[in-house]
Specification:
This protein is mostly helical. The chain has one domain (5-127). 76% of the residues lie in helices and 0% in strands. It is elongated, with a radius of gyration of 17 Å.
Length: 128
């Protein structure tokens, strides 16, 4: 169901993740691990969009994608400090490096909306 707010949050995160993948690939020297992490997250987000009937699985997918966004930053920092001269060399922060944080925020908002729906369904089941 596209009209649900959590689906819109997940779709926005998916679009931003796809843009981030394109911007990473178009960079001169990028670690392949960043692209792989973002691609896995994009696939999971795409699957989560169509799991609107299974709210618990959709929440798990959102949680796992948030963990992947944190892992993206860990890999980015590792490459910056191991391969370069800290954050001043060729691995200095780029503007597109903020996209995974925005993705994590959107996925958190989607998680909260899915949880709210789940709690509403459970409360209505008690009334029957």
């Amino acid at each position: 169901m596209i009209q649900r707010i959590q689906t819109l949050y997940i779709l926005a995160s998916l679009v931003l993740g796809t843009v981030c993948i394109y911007l990473e690939i178009s960079a001169e020297n990028h670690p392949w691990a960043l692209t792989v992490i973002m691609a896995i997250a994009a696939v999971l987000q795409f699957m989560a969009v169509f799991m609107f009937r299974r709210r618990a699985a959709q929440m798990r997918f959102c949680t796992f994608c948030i963990i992947l966004m944190v892992a993206w930053y860990a890999v980015y920092a590792a490459f910056a400090f191991v391969m370069g001269d800290g954050l001043v060399g060729e691995y200095r922060p780029r503007p597109w490096a903020a996209i995974p944080m925005v993705n994590a925020i959107l996925l958190y908002l989607a998680f909260r909306a899915i949880l709210k729906d789940e709690l509403l369904v459970r409360s209505l089941d008690r009334l029957r």
